[in-house]
User: Fold this.
Amino acid sequence: MTDYPPPPPPQQPYGAGPVGELPLSQPLRGASPRDAIMRFFKKYATFEGRASRSEFWWPWLFAWVVNTAITLILGSDSMAGSIVGGLFSLAILVPSLAVGARRLHDTGRSGWWQLLYLTCVGIIVLIIFWALPEKAEGDKYNVA
Assistant:
């Protein structure tokens, strides 16, 4: 019996990212805070595809912490606090809507459900939808 050397490990195709890195078009399950916030800004205005719960909730927490810090440091009554807080809110408006739509896609719903935000109780319904686990129906929103 002859000993053969083990086969070489599989190699990455040319132009592919690091081994194990998920493409931006796929939801990143169990994302770390850093990864989730990076994806939040990389997919600034991407309304198609899906987003995992961690991809949605970490940036949400980040925005809350930054807004709270702005309020504590500059004060909510001051002109500077209002301007800086308003500019930050405008800066994250589009990516917040985009990640919200992608999160709804992951639960099998259309991003248009975010229009509920305009009603009094709509935010409660949206928070429940955003907190739900992914569904197989969300596969129809996958981006190739």
